[in-house]
Protein: tRNA 2-thiouridine synthesizing protein E
Organism: Varunaivibrio sulfuroxidans
Amino acid sequence: MSYANLEQSENGYLLDTSDWSEDIAGEIAAVEDLAPLNARQWDVINFLRDEYFSNNQHQPNERAMVKAMSEKWGEKFSTKGLYELFPMQPSKQAAKIAGLPETKRKGGY
């Protein structure tokens, strides 16, 4: 099954989280002009998926994403760095690639 054949919201988010796979993520990333995904982008995507499925469908904001990646990578990571990985509002763009539902909040802090 390809991304184009999966049920999506009007903004391109998967309607069924179980439709997601790493291949589908790659297809969504291509639509978002982010393919191929690099290791740091995968770290963010996997963090978002883990938070969503392990923490009562919690979708972290950008501040929480920066903090988690700083800890994971053992370096001071910034919001600017997050936008370099996901230029179109990281909390939304990364969540879309991660196959998560669209969040209605604004994203930042």
About this structure: The chain has a mean pLDDT of 94.
